[in-house]
Amino acid sequence: MLKRLWLACSTGIALAAATQAAPPPPKLEAFLSYPFESELTAPKAGGRLAWIEMRKGIRNIWIADGPDYKPRQLTDGTRDDGQEFSSLAFSPDGKMLAWVHGGGEHNSWANNLPPPNPDSSVIQPQMEIWVSIGGGAPVKVAEGEAPVFAPGGKLTFLKDGQVFTVDPSGQGKPVKLFYDHGKIGGLAWSPDGSKLAFVSHRGDHSFIGVYSSPDRPLAWIAPTTSFDDNPAWSPDGTRIAFSRQAGIADILSSPLEEKPNPFSIWVGSIADGTAKLAWRSPKVINGSFPQVPDGLFLMWGAGDRLTFRAEMDGWPHLYSLPASGGEPTLLTPGNFMVEHVSMTPDHRSLLYSANSGTAEGDIDRRHIFRVAVDKPGPVGLTPGSGLEWTPVGLGDKIAFVGSTATTPMRVTLADAGGKNARPLETTTIDYTAKLIVPRPVTFTASDGMLIHGQLFLPKGRGKHPGLIFVHGGPPRQMLLGWSYMDYYTHAYAMNQYYASRGFAVLSVNYRLGIGYGRAFQHPAKAGVAGNSEYLDVLAGAAFLKAQPEVDPARLGIWGGSYGGLLTAHALAHNSDMFKVGVDFHGVHDWTLYPGKVGRPQRYEQGDYDIVLKTAFESSPEAAIAGWKSPVLLIHGDDDRNVRFDQTVDLARRLAAQDTPFEELILPNEIHGFLRYDSWLRADTAAVAFLESVLKP
Fold first, then answer.
1. Which of 463, 341, 356 is CA-nearest to residue 391?
2. Whole-prediction pTM value?
3. For 212-228, how does the pLDDT look when each residue is reduced to its tens digit (9 = 90+)?
4. Would you say 79 and 58 are in contact if contact means Cβ atoms under 8 Å apart?
C-alpha cells in the first residue's frame, strides 16, 4: 500500500513517495499487455507487407509475403530497452527493407540533442540504419535516419541534416552524396532513379532542390522567400509538385487571434527550374495550411492530377486538381476528417481512414474508405462498430490495422472492396483483461460548445468514484476503442483498467482537438489566448457527477502533456471539485514554453506585453494559490516536448505554499515514455495515489 508522504513542512521541500519499488496492483500488467501495431507499409510493386509490433516494451519488425501473407518476425528484439524502430522503407521492387533503430519524438527546440537513453545504458545509443535483403537477416549499414531507396536499389539517408548513401548489403562505408548549406529533409527519388528531390530548410525560408550527379551543381526550383515543401514527382519524372507558404506576412502578428495562413501548390520544371502556379488557397481562415497531424498528403495521381488535403469547407478533406492548374474538386464531402492517406498502386484511387459511418458514435471511430483521384464518391470498406486505420493497397487486396473496443489491434487483410477481412496472426494473444465497451456521450460547455466524450462505467452496484481523463496534443482525439497512436492506446488501456477498479471514467475530447471540424480545433480564446478549453473539462465534470452511478463528492482527474496542463488547471481553479489529480509531464507556465511567447528580436514589439500577460494568466500557475488538492507529478527529465523545468517550477511553487504533492521522476525518459517499465511504474504509482484519496 502506498505510504502517504504529503508535505506541509516548514522547509517547503516535497519528498517523493516510495512508489518506484511498489508492486503493480492486480491485473495491471494484463491490461498493459496489448500489442501495438504501427507503420504498416508495402512496396510500390506490392506483394509484401511490413510493420512494427510493440508488446510490453519489446519491439520487433514483421513481414508478410503474398499471396497468403503469412507473417514472419524479422528482428529478434527481446528487451524493453526503449530503442524504437521507425521509418520503415521498402525498395520499389520490395526486395529490400530499411528502417531506423533508436531515436525518439521531439519538438524543434530539441533537434540537436543526442538520441534518448531511457534505459540509462553506459553506452550512448545512436540512430542506426538497418537493412534486410530478401527477408534475410538484418544488417546494420550506417548511423542516420530517414532511409529512402531509389529505383534500382540505391539507399540514401540523412545524418546531421545532410544526405548520405551506402551499399544496402552493408559492404563499404557511408558516403556523403552532396553538400548543402541548409538542413535537408523530404527526400524523394525520381521514378527512374536518376534524380533526388529534397527540401533545404534554411530557418526563415526553404527551397526545393534537385541532385542529379556528382559533377553537376544542385538545381533549385523557383526559389523565393517562402517555405517550399512536400515535393512529389510526376510519373514521367519531368516535373515536381510542391507546396508553398509565404509565412506570416505580419511578423508581429499576435498569437491571441488567429489569422489566415494561406498556401499554394506549384508545379516545377526539371528542365529549366521554373514553376507554375497550379492553385492558391483563398485568403480566409479555412484556406489556411492544414494544421492536422501528417499535413498535406500531396500526391501525383493518374490522369495528371494532383491530390492533397485541405480544410476549405471547415473539415480536413481530400481535393484533386489538374497539374496544369484549375479549381480543386472536393473528393470527400461531409462532416468528418480524413487521415492516413495512401494511393493505390495504379494511382487511380486514394485509400484513407475517416471518422465517418452509419453506426452510432462513428465520429469517435475510424473506418477505411476508397475514392477516385478525379471525382467525388467515397466508398466505405469497413463499416461497423470496429476501428480501422492506415490502409495499404495491394492490387486485389488491402491491408490495414483493425480492432474493436474490446479486442486489441491486429494487422488485417481484406479484398480490395473490404470483404473477407482476416487478421494476420503474429503471436498468440494472451489478453486476460476484461474490457468494457465505452459509451459515446455529449455534453455542453457553459459557452455553448458541444463536447464529445467516452464514458467507461464500471460493473457493480452502488456509487463509484469519478475520474476525468484529458488527452494531450492538443490536436488529438480519444476514440471508442484502441488508438492508432501508442500514447493514447496506453491511455485507453488505463481508462479500461480504472473502470475495472471501480472508477467511472469520462474521457473528454475538449476543444483544440481534432475530429470535429476546423472551428473546433481552432477556437477563440483557447490555449495561451485564454484557456477556454478548460470550460469543457468543467462541463465533463458536471456531466460525470450527474450520472446516477457516480458519487459526486469523489472526483479526480488525470492526463498527460496538454492533459497534464488541464489537470493542473482543474486542481488550481477547482480543488473544491477535483479532490486529487495525476499530472503527467504537463505545461504549467506558458511563458516558460519555447517559442510560444518569445520577445520579438527587433525594435518593434507589437503587443508582446499583452501576449505575455495573457499567456501567464492562461497558465495553471497563475491560479496556484487556490491549489489545495493533492497531486502526483510524473515526468521524464529528458522530455523533448514539454521541458522538465515545467515540473521543476511547479513542484517548487507547490512546496512553497505547502500544497500536498508527490513526485515520480524518471531519469533519461522522454515525453512519450519509451520503456514499458516506465509506464508500469508510473501507472502503479498513479493507481495507488488516486485510490488512496478516492477509495480510502
1. 341
2. 0.95
3. 999 999 999 999 999 99
4. yes
